[in-house]
Specification:
This protein is of the alpha/beta class. 35% of the residues lie in helices and 19% in strands. It has helices spanning 5-23, 31-42, 44-55, 64-79, 171-186, 210-216, 218-221, 264-267, 274-285, 306-314, 319-326, 336-339, 381-394, 406-411, 435-448, 464-471, 496-511, and strands at residues 84-88, 97-102, 110-116, 135-137, 161-163, 194-200, 225-228, 240-242, 244-256, 262-263, 344-351, 362-363, 366-375, 398-400, 415-420, 428-429, 453-455, 458-461, 475-477, 493-495. Strands 9, 11, 13, 14, 15, 16 and 18 form a seven-stranded mixed β-sheet that branches. Strands 1-2-6-3-7-19 form a six-stranded mixed β-sheet, sandwiched between helices. A three-stranded antiparallel β-sheet has the order 4-5-20. A hairpin with an 8-residue loop joins strand 1 and strand 2 (97-102). The protein is globular.
Length: 515
Amino acid sequence: MVKSIRDLRRWTGVVAAAAVALASGVAAADPARDAADAWRTAHEKAILGEFTDFLSLPDVATSQADIEANATHLEAMLRARGFETRRLSAGPGTPPTVFAEMKVTGAKRTVLYYAHYDGQPIGQAGWLSSPFQPVMRTGALKDHPTVVDWRAAAKIDPEWRIYARGSGDDRATIEALLTAIDALKAKGLKPSVNVKLFYEGEEEQGSPHLAQIVSANRDLLKADLVIMGDGPMHQSGRQQVNFGSRGVAGFTATVYGPLRPLHDGHYGSWAPSPAVEIAQLVASLRKDNGDIEIPGIYDNVRPPSATERAALAALPPVEDDLAHSLGIQPITNERLDDSYFRPTLNVRAIHVGDTGPNAANAIATTASASFDFRLVPGQTPERVQGLVRAYLEQQGWLVTDQPPDMATRLAHAKIVKITWDPGASVAVKTDMDAPAAKAAVSAIERVEGAPILRVPMVGASSGIAVIVTDLDAPMAGVSIANYDDNQHAENENLRLANLWDGIAVYAGLLSELTW
């Protein structure tokens, strides 16, 4: 149903895409789509039952017990489909990656399908229900959804949404692929490629052990294409394939004031304030329009190629709709997808003092801010770290990696301790014209019956760069979650229509990949 001008524009775009598909000879019927739709229609509640059981398992990335329990559950799901499984890890006490393999007689290519099963922390305020007690609601938060008992319902509405941590990011991709396996088998179809699954258990910690795992298992993981099933779909709501993601390098800056809290009436005009100092440090790093102030930060940035510029120009505009739905005025006139080709510095959090009932009229002893850089091709975490240190030193800061001792405090007015996050990664980008990349697009377009969006690079980051680089394989990112899934936030959710369509998409990526 078209409910607004924005919906009308989106609907018109889909109709136009379908018209182009028909004109170009894209078949309306497709074996993989037919198999997926037939199986899903007949087994909707069984699929949802398996999925909600999976979502009921706590999966906080920092909890080893959570991750181990998820790995055990996931292995059982895989073995039920005929996969051989094994756990890969960097050693005792580190989160396992679940590897599975299905060899296909006659297949000439091997594809590695990636997703992660760990999730973000759940401490955000505002959850409508327990993050690990999946609840079905009638729609998106903006529509004030009501709870529905899907098990007792006569019909499942595809606009309903499952609310639970990990529903969109990214256990939905796992459920979609495994259900696609069921659907193909029921129709007597088999994958066109040898299938390897790589389900990571520490992506939400920054993948600190991923490089070690991949390096130690390079022969086991060897593949001709990597399908990355992480992240949401395009903001237009249309299916996309992306060919790269940005890198990441995060750090925490801590500044220091008096050794003990001071009455701000007595000392406010005399003692240094960590709250003021952290605010000044944050403001010195980026402009209001998002440009990064650090000299040299843009020196190695590679502009998009002619092919990538053409792909960017072909993407539908989403900025006006997004600004309206989010209630914001963007800080730049740049198109969203274009912005992914330059680095971003984000302020994740600022911590100092207390508010509310714990507020005190006192000068705090320390203050901290947490940042992350999203890096683009040509940049490395190591160089960015050096640029940050050099810039802060130019601003008069003594930069250290340890809390200052008394002598250091008395000798320097501005002291900042910098702690870099583990698991930094470079950006990764595949040639959009590579045969394997084109094959992924073609397979999905056959399933969708219409052209899909080709996105050169997305704004998020992933350890996928380690896999693609170490295996020397092209990649295609295929996301199925709704773009408004509240990823990494409270009330994370998955629209059922996205799961249903995702099953068909992965059925195509299993059975119709040829190059």
